[in-house]
Amino acid sequence: MRFRLSPEQRQFAATLHELLGGADTAAAARAWAAGEHDRGLKLWRALADVGVFALLADEDHGGLGAGPVDLVVACEALGYHAVPGPVVESAAVAPALLTGDRLTALAEGDLVATVVAPPEVPLALDADIAGVVLDLTGAELTGVGTEPVRSIDPPRRLFRVPAAPAAAGTAFDRGVLAVAAQLVGLGQWLLDTAVAYAKQRKQYGRAIGEYQAIKHLLADVVTRLELARPLLYGAAVAGDTFARDVSAAKAMATDAAVLAARTALQVHGAIGYTAEHDLGLRLTKVRALAGAWGTGSFHRARVLR
After folding, report:
1. Core-most of 11, 166, 173, 262, by most CB within 10 Å?
2. Closest by Cα among 131, 125, 129, 175 to 154
3. From CA 75, how far away is CA 93, in angstroms rounded?
4. pLDDT tens digit string along 51-80?
5. Quick one: 167 exposed, middle or buried, by C-beta within 10 A (0-12, 13-18, 19+)?
6. In angstroms, what CA-CA distances link 186 with 96, 137, 282?
7. Taking all residues of the chain, what is their mean pLDDT, rounded to a whole number?
8. Strand pairing report for 202-203 and 158-160
9. How many angstroms separate the CA atoms of 2 and 6, rounded?
């Protein structure tokens, strides 16, 4: 099968990159990590205005009635720009769980939703600012902890919420698909940034990108991303019918993003370790998302079964 995004989907991706490219998402993420949400919620409203949270809601509730491919297009862009907040939970998971006025509010951007789904998702992301906390049955949960659980990725503010385990289904798989798309987007940003740095950083009178060793490192990342992306979009085309495809996409997207993170750090050297460099935001986010909505071991076992 030959797959290609439609002109509308390509335009949607371009719109998101233009919006987020000028929004200083790095500053929003740093503020979010400090518990200051105003900048991030302003960005949330802008994303709602272009339809990100309406994608999977039906038209009767103010949604666009779009499909998983459109969700992947959006989440890949959100990952590329490291947008903070429970975007996966609100854009991908909650539309399968909410009904009525709650679903309408979500689609219009007036409701921020988050989800807890033990054992794979034991903590609720940004439950302190969410208007509703859900489990995989669609039940609204209470009893949010007052102190966030520390994450390796500071903008990911996690909270303990009492919830019983629930069977994985459509809502869970959409969350997995969305996180996989974020990881591919993150990997692409890391690659683009490493390539740009390799072209301008000089050693011994030559740009480091001219050295064969650097070219090989970057080429390996390109290959890994190009292998992950068809699995990601293949899972999206399969829709809500093949959990195996979604798990395969998550496992491959994680491997690609981790390699991109390691390589980008090698190319940048010591500057990549600094908190002031935007590379650091992506390094920690890749590490956190690698285990979000199921670890690599969980998803490989799921494919095997």
Report:
1. 173
2. 125
3. 12
4. 999 999 999 999 999 999 999 999 999 999
5. exposed
6. 25, 30, 7
7. 93
8. unpaired
9. 12
Q: Judge if pTM exceeds 0.90.
A: yes
Measured distance CA(304)–CA(91) in Å, rounded: 29
Which residue is associated with the tokens 């909505």?
293
Distance CA 82, CA 20 (A): 9
Residue 1: predicted pLDDT: 61
Q: What is the pLDDT of residues 152-174, one digit of tens each?
A: 999 999 999 998 888 889 999 99
Q: Is 158 helix (H, G, I), strand (E, B) or coil?
A: strand
Residue whose pair of structure tokens reads 């949604």 in the numeric block? 63
Cβ neighbors of 247 (< 8 A, separation 6 or more) are 176, 294, 298, 299, 300, 302, 303
Residue 2 above 80 pLDDT? no
User: Which residues neighbour 264 within 8 Å (Cβ) at sequence distance 6 or greater?
Assistant: 190, 191, 193, 194, 272, 279, 282, 283
Distance from C-alpha of 96 to C-alpha of 181, rounded to nearest angstrom:
18
Please tell me the distance from the alpha carbon of residue 136 to that of residue 115, in angstroms, as a whole number: 7
Q: For residue 69, what pLDDT is reported? A: 96
Answer for the pair 190, 257: CB distance below 8 angstroms, yes or no: yes
Helices marked H in 239-305: 243-268, 279-291, 296-304
